[in-house]
Specification:
It contains eight helices and eleven strands. It has 235 residues and is an alpha+beta fold. The strands form three sheets. Strands 3, 4, 5, 6, 7 and 8 form a six-stranded antiparallel beta sheet that branches. Strands 9-11-10 form a three-stranded antiparallel beta sheet. Strand 5 and strand 6 form a beta hairpin. Helix 5 crosses helix 8 and helix 6 crosses helix 7.
């Protein structure tokens, strides 16, 4: 176990998984562990805010357990879900590279969650000290940006069936043999919002995929019978 400031315990296994995160993988071992010495473990209950839109971005976070909803509120109070982050996903990291350094959206726990909180200033200082680490991080973030652009294209140009199939495939290792069992990272209502569709539309698409014998649905658990069949839907 690693004891973080404040007495919180984090297992070596958890930290090794965090070590593979795109934001941290290019750091040297010495840089990584010096950053972890100042990291904090934050545990959240359902509905707890990690941060609010407009808050000063002094820290960024990596999800260790559970899910974090990233969303904005319109002037009329309507919630727009931008993303739902799961284990090992970074949250709020982009804000530290912005000129004003404020979070662009809200982050809230879905049920219970645990996140690793890392000081932005300490992280940026490490990047200033190492060109290799800096360029490694830029490469990792460029890959994430490419995936985000692909996601935007799917949401704005593709059918509901294509969007759902694309989302399900993003949850699994596509090289896994059939059948593949996966648990949805959030409620169907949140997933529908993330995919820019009504919950009824998501339920209808799931029924269609089930009728085609591509998958079975039991609550938030999916059994995917044909990964190849889902891939054909997005080609």
């Amino acid at each position: 176990m690693i004891i973080l400031p404040g007495g919180a315990n984090v297992s070596y296994h958890s930290l090794e998984k965090v070590r593979q995160n795109a934001l941290l993988s290019a750091l040297t071992d010495g840089q990584f562990y010096s950053l972890m010495k100042k990291a904090k473990l934050i545990e959240l209950d359902d509905g707890d805010h990690l941060f609010m839109q407009g808050d000063e971005a002094k820290r960024f976070f990596i999800v260790l357990q559970g899910s974090i909803k990233f969303f904005r509120l319109t002037s009329g109070g309507k919630e727009t879900v931008i993303n739902v982050f799961g284990e090992q996903d970074p949250v709020g990291e982009a804000a530290m590279f912005m000129a004003e350094k404020h979070y662009p959206a809200n982050a809230m726990a879905i049920k219970s969650a645990a996140v690793l909180s890392i000081c932005c200033q300490d992280y940026l200082q490490l990047l200033h000290q190492s060109y290799e680490s800096c360029f490694g991080i830029l490469g990792s973030m460029a890959s994430r940006l490419k995936r985000s652009i692909s996601d935007i294209e799917v949401l704005t140009q593709q059918s509901a069936v294509h969007r759902v199939a694309h989302f399900i495939l993003s949850l699994i290792d596509e090289k896994s043999p059939d059948p593949v069992v996966v648990r949805l990272p959030a409620t169907k209502q949140l997933i529908a919002s993330r995919l820019a569709m009504q919950p009824e539309t998501l339920s209808r698409v799931m029924r269609e995929l089930k009728e085609k014998e591509l998958l079975d649905v039991q609550g938030r658990n999916l059994t995917i019978h044909s990964v190849a069949g889902l891939k054909r839907l997005i080609q």
